[in-house]
Amino acid sequence: MTLLQRVFRSVRNGHRYILPLASVPVNKNQRVLRNYSQSKQDTEAKELKSPAISVSTEHEEHQYEESIKNRILLRALEYVPKTGWSVESLSAGAESAGYPGITHGLFPNGGGDLVHYFNVKCNENLVEQMKSWPKDDLKDNKVPSKFIENAIMTRLLMIEPYKSTWPKAMAIQALPNNVPNCLATLLSLVDDICYHSGDRSVDFNWYIRRVGLAGIYKASELFYLTDNSTDFSKTRNFVSSRIRDAQLIQTALNLNPVAAAPQTLTAAFVTAKNMLGINTLK
Protein backbone atom coordinates (compact mmCIF):
# COMPACT_ATOMS: atom_id res chain seq x y z
CA MET A 1 0.00 0.00 0.00
CA THR A 2 1.38 3.34 -0.99
CA LEU A 3 1.76 6.26 1.41
CA LEU A 4 -1.02 8.19 -0.36
CA GLN A 5 -3.43 5.25 -0.02
CA ARG A 6 -2.70 5.00 3.72
CA VAL A 7 -3.50 8.73 4.13
CA PHE A 8 -6.87 8.40 2.36
CA ARG A 9 -7.79 5.31 4.40
CA SER A 10 -6.91 7.03 7.69
CA VAL A 11 -9.04 10.07 6.84
CA ARG A 12 -11.96 7.86 5.78
CA ASN A 13 -11.83 5.88 9.02
CA GLY A 14 -11.92 9.09 11.09
CA HIS A 15 -8.30 8.91 12.19
CA ARG A 16 -5.93 11.83 12.11
CA TYR A 17 -2.88 11.20 10.05
CA ILE A 18 0.06 13.56 10.13
CA LEU A 19 2.15 13.34 7.05
CA PRO A 20 5.88 13.54 7.84
CA LEU A 21 7.51 16.47 6.10
CA ALA A 22 10.44 14.30 5.13
CA SER A 23 8.15 11.98 3.19
CA VAL A 24 6.65 14.68 0.97
CA PRO A 25 8.18 14.43 -2.48
CA VAL A 26 9.39 17.84 -3.55
CA ASN A 27 11.75 18.22 -6.45
CA LYS A 28 14.38 20.90 -6.74
CA ASN A 29 12.27 23.18 -8.90
CA GLN A 30 9.36 22.97 -6.46
CA ARG A 31 11.66 23.69 -3.53
CA VAL A 32 13.09 26.72 -5.26
CA LEU A 33 9.60 27.92 -6.14
CA ARG A 34 8.37 27.42 -2.58
CA ASN A 35 11.36 29.17 -1.10
CA TYR A 36 11.00 32.03 -3.58
CA SER A 37 7.29 32.40 -2.78
CA GLN A 38 7.92 32.43 0.94
CA SER A 39 10.71 34.97 0.60
CA LYS A 40 8.55 37.15 -1.62
CA GLN A 41 5.66 37.00 0.87
CA ASP A 42 7.98 37.90 3.74
CA THR A 43 9.39 40.81 1.74
CA GLU A 44 5.91 42.08 0.82
CA ALA A 45 4.81 41.79 4.44
CA LYS A 46 7.79 43.86 5.54
CA GLU A 47 7.11 46.43 2.83
CA LEU A 48 3.50 46.70 3.96
CA LYS A 49 4.47 47.19 7.59
CA SER A 50 7.43 49.49 6.97
CA PRO A 51 5.53 52.64 5.78
CA ALA A 52 3.11 52.46 8.72
CA ILE A 53 5.96 52.13 11.17
CA SER A 54 7.80 54.98 9.47
CA VAL A 55 4.76 57.30 9.54
CA SER A 56 4.11 56.43 13.17
CA THR A 57 7.71 57.12 14.11
CA GLU A 58 7.77 60.44 12.26
CA HIS A 59 4.51 61.47 13.94
CA GLU A 60 5.87 60.61 17.38
CA GLU A 61 9.10 62.50 16.67
CA HIS A 62 7.12 65.52 15.48
CA GLN A 63 4.97 65.47 18.63
CA TYR A 64 8.06 65.16 20.80
CA GLU A 65 9.72 68.11 19.08
CA GLU A 66 6.54 70.22 19.35
CA SER A 67 6.30 69.37 23.05
CA ILE A 68 9.86 70.59 23.60
CA LYS A 69 9.18 73.77 21.64
CA ASN A 70 6.03 74.55 23.62
CA ARG A 71 7.82 74.07 26.94
CA ILE A 72 10.61 76.40 25.85
CA LEU A 73 8.21 79.04 24.50
CA LEU A 74 6.10 78.96 27.66
CA ARG A 75 9.16 79.47 29.84
CA ALA A 76 10.54 82.12 27.48
CA LEU A 77 7.48 84.32 28.08
CA GLU A 78 8.65 84.74 31.67
CA TYR A 79 11.76 86.55 30.40
CA VAL A 80 10.03 88.80 27.85
CA PRO A 81 9.46 91.73 30.28
CA LYS A 82 13.22 91.82 30.86
CA THR A 83 14.83 90.79 27.55
CA GLY A 84 11.92 91.33 25.14
CA TRP A 85 10.74 89.19 22.24
CA SER A 86 14.23 88.05 21.42
CA VAL A 87 16.60 85.13 21.02
CA GLU A 88 17.86 85.93 24.53
CA SER A 89 14.41 85.17 25.94
CA LEU A 90 14.24 81.93 23.96
CA SER A 91 17.69 80.89 25.17
CA ALA A 92 16.77 81.66 28.79
CA GLY A 93 13.51 79.78 28.34
CA ALA A 94 15.36 76.75 27.00
CA GLU A 95 17.71 76.68 29.98
CA SER A 96 14.79 77.16 32.37
CA ALA A 97 13.05 74.15 30.76
CA GLY A 98 16.18 72.03 31.23
CA TYR A 99 17.67 72.27 27.73
CA PRO A 100 20.88 73.89 26.49
CA GLY A 101 20.56 77.56 25.65
CA ILE A 102 21.57 76.82 22.07
CA THR A 103 18.22 75.02 21.66
CA HIS A 104 16.81 78.37 20.59
CA GLY A 105 17.93 77.21 17.13
CA LEU A 106 14.64 75.30 16.96
CA PHE A 107 12.99 78.65 16.21
CA PRO A 108 14.20 79.95 12.83
CA ASN A 109 12.19 83.19 13.15
CA GLY A 110 13.57 83.94 16.60
CA GLY A 111 11.35 86.43 18.43
CA GLY A 112 8.74 86.12 15.68
CA ASP A 113 8.04 82.53 16.72
CA LEU A 114 7.68 83.65 20.34
CA VAL A 115 5.18 86.39 19.40
CA HIS A 116 3.23 83.92 17.27
CA TYR A 117 3.07 81.42 20.14
CA PHE A 118 1.78 84.14 22.46
CA ASN A 119 -0.92 85.22 19.98
CA VAL A 120 -2.09 81.65 19.41
CA LYS A 121 -2.34 80.97 23.15
CA CYS A 122 -4.23 84.23 23.76
CA ASN A 123 -6.69 83.43 20.97
CA GLU A 124 -7.31 79.97 22.42
CA ASN A 125 -7.83 81.48 25.86
CA LEU A 126 -10.34 83.99 24.49
CA VAL A 127 -12.32 81.25 22.72
CA GLU A 128 -12.60 79.27 25.96
CA GLN A 129 -13.89 82.36 27.75
CA MET A 130 -16.40 83.29 25.04
CA LYS A 131 -17.90 79.80 25.18
CA SER A 132 -19.03 80.48 28.76
CA TRP A 133 -20.35 84.00 28.19
CA PRO A 134 -24.17 84.54 28.32
CA LYS A 135 -25.84 84.17 24.93
CA ASP A 136 -29.08 86.00 25.77
CA ASP A 137 -28.04 89.11 23.82
CA LEU A 138 -27.34 87.02 20.73
CA LYS A 139 -30.90 85.79 20.21
CA ASP A 140 -32.24 88.85 18.39
CA ASN A 141 -31.20 90.25 15.03
CA LYS A 142 -29.27 93.20 16.43
CA VAL A 143 -25.51 93.44 16.18
CA PRO A 144 -24.11 92.06 19.47
CA SER A 145 -21.94 95.15 19.97
CA LYS A 146 -21.47 94.56 23.71
CA PHE A 147 -20.30 91.00 23.14
CA ILE A 148 -17.79 92.14 20.49
CA GLU A 149 -16.62 95.01 22.67
CA ASN A 150 -16.00 92.67 25.61
CA ALA A 151 -14.19 90.20 23.36
CA ILE A 152 -11.83 92.88 21.99
CA MET A 153 -11.13 94.30 25.45
CA THR A 154 -10.53 90.86 26.94
CA ARG A 155 -8.05 90.04 24.19
CA LEU A 156 -6.28 93.40 24.50
CA LEU A 157 -5.85 93.04 28.26
CA MET A 158 -3.98 89.77 27.73
CA ILE A 159 -1.14 91.95 26.45
CA GLU A 160 -0.96 93.85 29.75
CA PRO A 161 1.94 91.84 31.31
CA TYR A 162 4.00 92.62 28.19
CA LYS A 163 2.64 96.07 27.37
CA SER A 164 5.99 97.85 27.60
CA THR A 165 7.53 95.45 25.07
CA TRP A 166 4.54 95.09 22.75
CA PRO A 167 5.53 97.86 20.30
CA LYS A 168 8.63 95.79 19.55
CA ALA A 169 6.43 92.72 19.10
CA MET A 170 4.29 94.62 16.58
CA ALA A 171 7.41 95.64 14.68
CA ILE A 172 8.59 92.01 14.62
CA GLN A 173 5.23 90.89 13.22
CA ALA A 174 5.58 93.39 10.35
CA LEU A 175 8.76 91.72 9.09
CA PRO A 176 8.15 89.88 5.78
CA ASN A 177 8.90 86.40 7.15
CA ASN A 178 6.51 86.93 10.07
CA VAL A 179 3.59 88.51 8.17
CA PRO A 180 1.89 85.17 7.28
CA ASN A 181 1.73 84.09 10.94
CA CYS A 182 0.62 87.57 11.99
CA LEU A 183 -2.27 87.61 9.52
CA ALA A 184 -3.21 84.03 10.35
CA THR A 185 -3.61 84.74 14.07
CA LEU A 186 -5.42 88.03 13.42
CA LEU A 187 -7.92 86.46 11.02
CA SER A 188 -8.37 83.54 13.40
CA LEU A 189 -9.12 86.01 16.20
CA VAL A 190 -11.76 88.01 14.33
CA ASP A 191 -13.34 84.85 12.90
CA ASP A 192 -13.68 83.37 16.39
CA ILE A 193 -15.21 86.58 17.71
CA CYS A 194 -17.70 86.76 14.83
CA TYR A 195 -18.62 83.10 15.16
CA HIS A 196 -19.18 83.15 18.92
CA SER A 197 -21.12 86.41 18.62
CA GLY A 198 -23.64 84.58 16.46
CA ASP A 199 -22.46 85.47 12.95
CA ARG A 200 -23.32 82.59 10.61
CA SER A 201 -23.35 84.58 7.36
CA VAL A 202 -22.10 82.95 4.18
CA ASP A 203 -22.48 85.91 1.85
CA PHE A 204 -20.44 89.03 1.03
CA ASN A 205 -21.05 90.34 4.56
CA TRP A 206 -18.84 87.54 5.90
CA TYR A 207 -15.76 89.24 4.45
CA ILE A 208 -16.82 92.78 5.28
CA ARG A 209 -17.47 92.00 8.94
CA ARG A 210 -14.19 90.19 9.46
CA VAL A 211 -12.03 92.72 7.65
CA GLY A 212 -13.84 95.50 9.48
CA LEU A 213 -13.37 93.81 12.85
CA ALA A 214 -9.68 93.20 12.09
CA GLY A 215 -9.27 96.92 11.44
CA ILE A 216 -11.08 97.77 14.68
CA TYR A 217 -8.87 95.43 16.67
CA LYS A 218 -5.57 96.71 15.24
CA ALA A 219 -6.62 100.35 15.73
CA SER A 220 -7.69 99.57 19.29
CA GLU A 221 -4.41 97.80 19.92
CA LEU A 222 -2.46 100.93 18.98
CA PHE A 223 -4.73 103.12 21.12
CA TYR A 224 -4.42 100.74 24.07
CA LEU A 225 -0.62 101.06 24.12
CA THR A 226 -0.93 104.80 24.87
CA ASP A 227 -3.84 104.51 27.32
CA ASN A 228 -3.05 105.15 30.98
CA SER A 229 -6.62 105.72 32.13
CA THR A 230 -8.19 103.85 35.03
CA ASP A 231 -9.31 100.36 33.97
CA PHE A 232 -8.45 101.44 30.41
CA SER A 233 -11.78 103.22 30.14
CA LYS A 234 -10.53 105.34 27.23
CA THR A 235 -9.68 102.22 25.24
CA ARG A 236 -13.12 100.78 25.92
CA ASN A 237 -14.76 104.01 24.72
CA PHE A 238 -12.56 103.93 21.62
CA VAL A 239 -13.57 100.34 20.86
CA SER A 240 -17.24 101.18 21.39
CA SER A 241 -17.02 104.14 19.00
CA ARG A 242 -15.33 102.03 16.28
CA ILE A 243 -18.03 99.38 16.59
CA ARG A 244 -20.74 102.02 16.15
CA ASP A 245 -18.96 103.26 13.03
CA ALA A 246 -18.90 99.70 11.69
CA GLN A 247 -22.63 99.39 12.36
CA LEU A 248 -23.26 102.52 10.27
CA ILE A 249 -21.27 101.00 7.40
CA GLN A 250 -23.24 97.77 7.70
CA THR A 251 -26.51 99.74 7.65
CA ALA A 252 -25.39 101.55 4.49
CA LEU A 253 -24.62 98.22 2.85
CA ASN A 254 -28.02 96.85 3.77
CA LEU A 255 -29.83 99.93 2.39
CA ASN A 256 -27.87 100.28 -0.85
CA PRO A 257 -25.30 97.48 -1.25
CA VAL A 258 -24.49 98.36 -4.90
CA ALA A 259 -23.58 101.97 -4.12
CA ALA A 260 -21.80 101.26 -0.84
CA ALA A 261 -19.79 98.22 -1.92
CA PRO A 262 -16.99 100.06 -3.81
CA GLN A 263 -16.30 102.44 -0.92
CA THR A 264 -16.42 99.57 1.55
CA LEU A 265 -14.03 97.47 -0.49
CA THR A 266 -11.64 100.41 -0.79
CA ALA A 267 -11.72 100.86 2.98
CA ALA A 268 -11.14 97.13 3.41
CA PHE A 269 -8.03 97.19 1.20
CA VAL A 270 -6.67 100.25 3.02
CA THR A 271 -7.25 98.47 6.34
CA ALA A 272 -5.44 95.38 5.09
CA LYS A 273 -2.49 97.51 3.92
CA ASN A 274 -2.38 99.24 7.29
CA MET A 275 -2.33 95.88 9.07
CA LEU A 276 0.60 94.78 6.94
CA GLY A 277 2.40 98.07 7.42
CA ILE A 278 2.54 98.64 3.66
CA ASN A 279 1.25 102.23 3.86
CA THR A 280 4.15 103.17 6.12
CA LEU A 281 6.83 101.63 3.88
CA LYS A 282 7.86 104.55 1.72
From TrEMBL:
<protein>
    <recommendedName>
        <fullName>Ubiquinone biosynthesis protein</fullName>
    </recommendedName>
</protein>
<comment type="function">
    <text>Membrane-associated protein that warps the membrane surface to access and bind aromatic isoprenes with high specificity, including ubiquinone (CoQ) isoprene intermediates and presents them directly to Coq7, therefore facilitating the Coq7-mediated hydroxylase step. Participates in the biosynthesis of coenzyme Q, also named ubiquinone, an essential lipid-soluble electron transporter for aerobic cellular respiration.</text>
</comment>
<feature type="domain" description="COQ9 C-terminal">
    <location>
        <begin position="180"/>
        <end position="247"/>
    </location>
</feature>
<dbReference type="InterPro" id="IPR048674">
    <property type="entry name" value="COQ9_HTH"/>
</dbReference>
<keyword id="KW-0446">Lipid-binding</keyword>
<keyword id="KW-0831">Ubiquinone biosynthesis</keyword>
<dbReference type="InterPro" id="IPR013718">
    <property type="entry name" value="COQ9_C"/>
</dbReference>
<comment type="similarity">
    <text>Belongs to the COQ9 family.</text>
</comment>
<dbReference type="GO" id="GO:0006744">
    <property type="term" value="P:ubiquinone biosynthetic process"/>
</dbReference>
<feature type="domain" description="Ubiquinone biosynthesis protein COQ9 HTH">
    <location>
        <begin position="65"/>
        <end position="95"/>
    </location>
</feature>
<dbReference type="InterPro" id="IPR012762">
    <property type="entry name" value="Ubiq_biosynth_COQ9"/>
</dbReference>
<dbReference type="GO" id="GO:0008289">
    <property type="term" value="F:lipid binding"/>
</dbReference>
<feature type="region of interest" description="Disordered">
    <location>
        <begin position="38"/>
        <end position="61"/>
    </location>
</feature>
<comment type="pathway">
    <text>Cofactor biosynthesis; ubiquinone biosynthesis.</text>
</comment>
<dbReference type="Pfam" id="PF21392">
    <property type="entry name" value="COQ9_N"/>
</dbReference>
<dbReference type="Pfam" id="PF08511">
    <property type="entry name" value="COQ9"/>
</dbReference>
<dbReference type="GO" id="GO:0005743">
    <property type="term" value="C:mitochondrial inner membrane"/>
</dbReference>
<keyword id="KW-0496">Mitochondrion</keyword>
<keyword id="KW-0809">Transit peptide</keyword>
